[in-house]
Amino acid sequence: MGEGKGKEDxxxxxxxxxxxxVASMISIIFGYETGVMSGALIFIEEDLKINDLQxxxxxxxxxxxxxxxxxxxxxxxxxxxxxxxxxxxAIIFLLGSLLMxxxxxxxxxxxxxxxxxxxxxxxLVIAPVYSAEISAASSRGILASLPELGISIGIxxxxxxxxxxxxxxxNIGWRxxxxxxxxxxxxxxxxxxxxxxxxxxxxxxxxxxxxKRVLLKVSNTKEEAESRLQDIKLAAGIDPNCTDDxxxxxxxxxxxxxxxxxxxxxxxxxxxxxxAAIGIHFFEHATGIEAVVLYSPRIFKKAGVTTKKKLLLATxxxxxxxxxxxxxxxxFIDRSGRRKLLQISVGGMIVALLGLGFALTIVHQxxxxxxxxxxxxxxxxxxxxxxxxSIGLAPVTWVYSSEIFPLKLRAQGASIGVAVNxxxxxxxxxxxxxxxxxxxxxxxxxxxxxxxVLAWIFFFFFLPETKGRSLEEMEEVFxxxxxxxxxxxxxxxxxxxxxxx
Length: 501
Fold this sequence. Notes:
It contains 21 helices and no strands. It has helices at residues 7-10, 14-48, 52-80, 82-101, 106-134, 140-144, 146-165, 170-179, 182-191, 199-204, 208-218, 222-235, 258-264, 268-286, 289-303, 308-329, 338-365, 372-391, 393-403, 410-462, 474-499. Helix 3 packs across helix 20 (410-462), helix 4 (82-101) runs antiparallel to helix 8 (170-179) and helix 14 (268-286) packs across helix 21. The two termini are 43 Å apart.
């Protein structure tokens, strides 16, 4: 049984689009925190007199704390619902932003960064899951990729904030940069309460009547809503023909026992799903994007850009590139499919990283003599890398991991992927400057190019296509892909036998 596939059903429902946009605001706030820290570090270093080790800890600690948030978010989302979990994330962000804005010392600033990190973990898990569950199969790619688009908007906003506030007094400017994030956090905490709950979560609570009312709003036709409801009921172990508004489910509906099914006794399809989710999240950051987003002023300084204003302006180019191509990719993710975008994206990243590593190596070996062509090549290949990352790996990571798990395992399965994502992100952001000191900045990007090659191989062999499949069909996708190869082999064998005279 699949979701309706008529022309009317293939249109993006305006109400589900609005819900996904509101949910994605949490990602904009997170993106802003990431982007604004890139430039703020220049001023914090000078104001608080901190060293490279303290800078790395301040930059990366948010991701270790996000690990805690991510692992808590799945269970929280199953217990209180997707909507209230987004609200909780916004409140945590609000507290973290205020702590950083009014931090009198490095220790308080670090504490605020940790609090914001817990909000990051919640945001990265729940925004794509909510967007995926509220949307139809035909539009799930574009709507579930909106959180990644939100992150890019936030990062660019943070870069622009750095540039516009750079002229403020040293001890005021970076504090204002962090304080700005408090307003949208409060707005989202209030605004999300006007959005509907995920219909799939409602079915898991036995609230079929409420789920049907939501589905009628987020579907284009009554038939599509009925079809989606029947698929969800079937996945939840409820008779598809049941017409009761409320049913009492025999199994738990608040996430208990899910870790056992995910980690201790997973079925073969779930084991494959978990491998796919962990792999795609690991490679998203192991290929070096955080080094570029967070330390781009340092990279451009190494390449030969000197003044603060020029450094911040060149960094804005990174944000603009990321936003333009993330936005462009949302129109292709449901048409060309996840696998093709990933392969094109990572292939381009490999070429760009090799070029960036080469250019920065030339600059490094010039011994402080300005090599203009290498400077421009560094900037061009840096932008090219961000472009290729943004058209595929960036949006597909979040869409893919939020759509592949079965209903009961989805929130907590996604949280494991996000935990790996944050751990990898933290490792890169907290070791990049030390890595540069050990193997040079060019060598660091050659290393990221090698990781990109491994990523391409992993995606080719371990990620089946999910385009156009309903969330309830994913277990079949991760079963059939393996079986289909065996079936094809058997058919070929049979055909060869038939041809023997």
